[in-house]
Amino acid sequence: ILNDDIMARFRRRTCVILLLFILFICSIMMALKTLRPDRAGFGDPFGLGLLPELQQRTVLLDSKQNSLNRAQGDTVTRVSNLHSSAVNTMKASISPVKKLEEELSSPNYNFHIFYYTWYGNPQFDGKYIHWNHPLLPHWDPKIANNYPKGRHNPPEDIGANFYPELGSYSSKDPTVIEAHMKQMRSASTGVIVLSWYPPGMADENGEPTDDLVPVVLDHAHKYNLKVTFHIEPYKDRDDRSMYHNVKYIIDRYGSHPAFYRHKTSTGRLLPMFYVYDSYVTIPEIWANLLTVSGSQSIRNTPYDALFIALLVEERHKHDIHRSGFDGMYTYFATNGFSYGSSHHNWASLKAFCDSNNLMFIPSVGPGYIDTSIRPWNNHNTRNRVNGKYYETAFSAALLVRPEIISITSFNEWHEGTQIEKAVPKRTGQVVYLDYKPHKPNVYLELTQKWSEKYRKEQEQWLM
User: Fold this and answer.
1) How far apart, in whole angstroms, are the C-alpha atoms of residue 31 and residue 51?
2) Distance, CA of 425 to CA of 435 (rounded, Å)
3) Which of 17, 229, 274, 321 has the most CB atoms lying inside 10 A of its own CB?
């Protein structure tokens, strides 16, 4: 009997061990089955490896075209041969772009994304610009004394809490502009809202960038993107200077195929201008420019446009209406920071806009952190929560059924609102934040996902 009991226990134990082994093998098989290649689903198929090919072919095309121009005095046969060569080269150059066009999601012209071209490095600019941003002191000296001073020292130490995949790049670098356009297009955005200062002007830490506008327009056009302007609060901005600057932009850039025009409910195609910090100018001054009876009125002229004001406080909505603006946007990617950036206020703001024939353009962002330049501002940090914060913002925006959604931002690295690709980096005492456990392009993928969702929901709204 004892032997039988021992044998029974032995058989039970063997069965249990065998069962556990089988379960282990099954779990391994299931795990292997669910693994997907990097490019599956929302994976990024638009690698930077294509850039050298595009660059090389573009240079070759320019070379052939110059040869053609020099050969105008030669024989007809020589001109014909050169022309044929140039055409063939042009076809080779266009071919990869067409291929990219087929791979990329279609642009959504109701998704507008804020873009900054104020970055510089020694290779293209002779020095670092903006990456070496100073540490800004708190306005209260007692608080300011508790925090470090000085400025950042690129390329290892930059004025950002995240680190770009492209490094401390220059906004003048053609390969960088190309990569940015490809990323924005892969995210299914459609309109670039370009930070803009008048010629010869810049923010206090930067250099003038108006000469870059034609380059941005050309690269945007290659990817079927449009460009509009985010007019910054330059020195002495008022009704008169705004009239001249709007005229300058439309005269200089308005004929470019990438220049954005918005189709209004009445069927008019009008340029659109976002006006940052519009509230610092009193409504009476804006009314001179933006109302039909104003002394500097731009209405019903060749320079008429849609002007979108920044709403921060609730009272600004009445000022915006009195000023003659066509709409309002909220910019900040910090839910709860201001009245305008608080998601729970968007429904009432949309209702106000609807009742006053204004556009409401909520701004969504992936998070916020600016302690690399404002070390005392930790309380305004908004954690990305692995993309959940961004998706919550999109969800809140879709609830109010806006005509346009704006995204803060593609590359405002100082405030940590960028959706541009970022990579893990540790150097010395600096440990940068990153997008792990996701890939560097996760926020481009999320933007593309919500662009498609927004497109589908808009179709239902219009039914």
Assistant:
1) 36
2) 11
3) 274
Q: Is 362 left (phi over 0), alpha (psi -120 to 50) or beta?
A: beta
C-alpha to C-alpha distance for 241 and 395, rounded to whole angstroms: 38
User: What pLDDT tens digit does each residue of the chain (463 aa) get?
Assistant: 556 666 677 777 877 787 777 777 666 555 443 333 333 222 222 222 222 333 333 333 344 344 334 334 443 333 334 334 333 434 444 455 556 666 788 999 999 999 999 999 999 999 999 999 999 999 999 999 999 999 999 999 999 999 999 999 999 999 999 999 999 999 999 999 999 999 999 999 999 999 999 999 999 999 999 999 999 999 999 999 999 999 999 999 999 999 999 999 889 999 999 999 999 999 999 999 999 999 999 999 999 999 999 999 999 999 999 999 999 999 999 999 999 999 999 999 999 999 999 999 999 999 999 999 999 999 999 999 999 999 999 999 999 999 999 999 999 999 999 999 999 999 988 999 999 999 999 999 999 999 999 999 998 887 7
Question: Of 406, 58, 18, which is closest to residue 230 (Cα–Cα)?
Answer: 406
Peptide bond into 122 cis (omega under 30): no
DSSP code of 264?
Answer: P
Residue-by-residue DSSP string for 208-248: --GGGHHHHHHHHHHTT-EEEEEE---TT-SHHHHHHHHHH
Interacting residues of 165 by C-beta distance below 8 A, sequence separation 6+: 420, 421, 422, 423, 440
Q: CA torsion sign, 257 to 260 to 263 to 268?
A: negative
Global pTM reads 0.79
How would CATH label the architecture of 114-462?
A: Alpha-Beta Barrel (3.20)
The domains of the chain are located at 114-462
